[in-house]
Amino acid sequence: MISMIEFTMLMKVAVLCCVGLMSSVVAATDNASPWLSDISILASDAMEGRETGSKGAQLSREYLVKRYQEIGLTPLSTLSDFTHPFDARKDTDIISGINLVGFLAANVSNAGNHQSPRYIVVSAHYDHIGRSGRRIFNGADDNASGVAAMLYMASRSEQQSRQCHQVFLASDAEEHGLLGARAFVKADLLDKADIFVNLNLDMLSQPGGRREVLVSGNTSHPAFNQLISGIELASTMPMIATDERRRVGRYPGKADRRKVSDHAAFAEQGIPFLFLGVGRHNYYHTPRDTLSRVNKPFYAETVNVAWLYLQKLDALCGNRAD
Ligand SMILES: [Zn+2]
Fold this sequence. Notes:
Layout: H1 4-29, H2 34-42, H3 55-71, E1 83-90, E2 93-104, E3 119-125, E4 131-132, E5 135-136, H4 140-158, E6 165-171, H5 179-186, E7 195-201, E8 213-216, H6 224-235, E9 239-241, H7 263-267, E10 273-277, H8 296-319
Helix pairs in contact: 2-4, 4-8, 6-8
The structure holds zinc ion.
Zinc ion binds at residues 125, 142-143, 174, 202-203, 261.
């Protein structure tokens, strides 16, 4: 005999097991999941770890430009094509990189709102740390996972109503110290006052044993804590807001997560941001960060969580409630 509480718990476990089993079957067999084909190409050995300035980085860009075109993104009016080349100083060196920037114009306006639409900049760095001899640092999680998620979000968004303009920034030279994102912000390709938020994606596919997403930037706008709670409820994915915490994640570094990826370039200009990622894990910056270690059911969840963020941010951006 078991009590009703025990019975209810057993049923919940059974349901969770089935859901887990089903999602792994779906992920293993559903080759149509576009984020899986994008991540597998970007993390392939042919891309040689996508180091800034390398042949692998160039091949990655050729692939991404093709995907931007397929999705229906257009270049920014301030650029002649999708590329944004830049030179940036790193210590005594000059690093030359190339960001890729795609644009989707707002296509609806909120009733009574006659102001011109603001911008949401979704970012994910496509560069990684290359190779060392025969060892390739594929960077499947860091950050082919974020770029593939961004492409999926752009393709979904292109087919829906948008109250704000959306910019998709595949940044270069993040691994050298956020150089591409800083160059993008400094170049004034958009009027900074018109950027409502940066949604930055960096490492979404390897949970390190924990089903949770770390969210930085929760204090960068008064409406964000509520927005994060709403997405946690809607998705059932635990969201760990990190701005007030000094140590987070399974392998917490001492780093302030508000500064660890490209969103910092926007934060430095006073632009609100949200940063989604899983935090450091055992495979971080090792040759073992490969496609085979991507947790496909978990990654499918984080891709959809990221998409929820973009939708909610567009609604918030459009109503000009801030
Ligand atoms: Zn990264």
